[in-house]
Amino acid sequence: MVAEANSSPEVLAQPTEVRYEAVIGLEVHCQLLTQSKIFAADANAFGAEPNTNISVITLGHPGTLPKLNRKAVEYAVRIGLACGSEITRHNIFARKNYFYPDLPKGYQLSQDKGPICVGGGILVKAKDPQTGQSYQTTIQLHHIHLEEDAGKSIHDGDEWATQLDYNRAGTPLIEMVTDPCIRTADEAGQYLTEVRRLVRYLDICDGNMEEGSLRCDVNVSIRPRGATNLGTKVEVKNLNSIRNVMRAVDSEFKRQVEIVESGGRIIQETRTFDASTGLSYAMREKETMNDYRYFPDPDLTPVVISDAWLADIQSRMPMLPAELYQKFTTHYGLPDYDAALLTDSKELADYYEAVCRHTSNYKAASNWIMGPVKSQLTEKMLRDRQFPISAERLASLIGLVDNGTISQTAAQQVLTLLIAQPDAIAEELAQTHGLIQNRNTDALQSLVEEVLTAWPDKVAQYRKGKKNLLGMFVGEVMKKSKGSADPKLVNELVTKTLQTT
User: Fold this and answer.
1) Which of 40, 71, 182, 264 is in Cβ range 3.0-4.6 Å of 24 for a Cys bridge?
2) Which residues form the signal peptide (predicted)?
3) Per CATH, is 441-500 categorized as 1.10.10.410?
């Protein structure tokens, strides 16, 4: 039970939940995008038929020997470098012993005393729940370690038995463990959002929480506001979305406050979260480190990350969101808003840069991607980089507007046509559908004179100083041309004619 840090009348008069603060730590598991598993050559692929991506090594048959996947080590180092962690040069793996049906060997190969990445942090932007004001804070990492995933237990596939799919067993994981430094549900949600964005930028995990390739466990305790001691933590599992992580934090905080306020005691336990009710339910009392009986795996030799290997990984690091943001605002001259939105996902950022390789109108490229193109994308299309039209064709469409071949309005129509016919040429589509702008000066001059002749009163008002009538004249000419006239040229012709006649 947590004791009050200050029981003055002023403090006791505050709302119950204001008198306490949450202390939160997150454990984020990221499945790595290697082609094979971490200790076996089985395919690392989601969606295969149950128990097809397995082997005698994954199943732990007697006499089999694991072999570490080099790419998994490199991916773990990448995330450590991105977070500013210290990279452990001498790495060993240990057996974490526990007996669940989804663990075919009876133990999990993991890192115990020496995680591959130590320390570091991730900067997040969050909002104060009391004031609504935004602020920045760095969520400190305790460590990042490598391990293998367990299989999957399926409880609703058979009325009488639990079914087991070992395809996932042996999938390489990194577990990112924060310090207990998170204070609010919003901080937890923003941190998880940044982790997902970071692993996608690094191309080490697809960050798909629906498929389980990114999973999060939450440790929550409470203490009186202003106290420094930590309370008893409770772990909440079964969180499959960022929203549910935030809901679970709030729910568990309220549950623990109610227990303490009623004179009860918080039990260290593991709970599962029910997304349909927003409540958590007890699963088991939490194991301690001694319960797992860690010891170094005798079949795996230590892995040494040499200076040369580390330098090679560093040399192949991609640009991260903060670096790209700086590039977009300086090299491309984009406003802060554009740069922030485009760098929100690696896929959008890469697509924008691809478009800019074919056009120098960087702001127009940003406007098209943030507007019409993005509105056509689903989350899956974005994740799979299935953009509705190629970067080169979008750039050609921008070029047609820039050189006056088609209007901005007509370009929207051409975009729709291109999405339906992605291999077509933008200018040919505009020609076929009568969307090429009329830049015939003589023909347009005739239309201008027709309009001005038809509106003598308005012409007189314009010449007396009512200059806002210019838009009306241009609009009437555009109507007569059935939208095919170049608005800029029409504007010039109307202005010139009004000044000279």
Assistant:
1) 182
2) none
3) yes
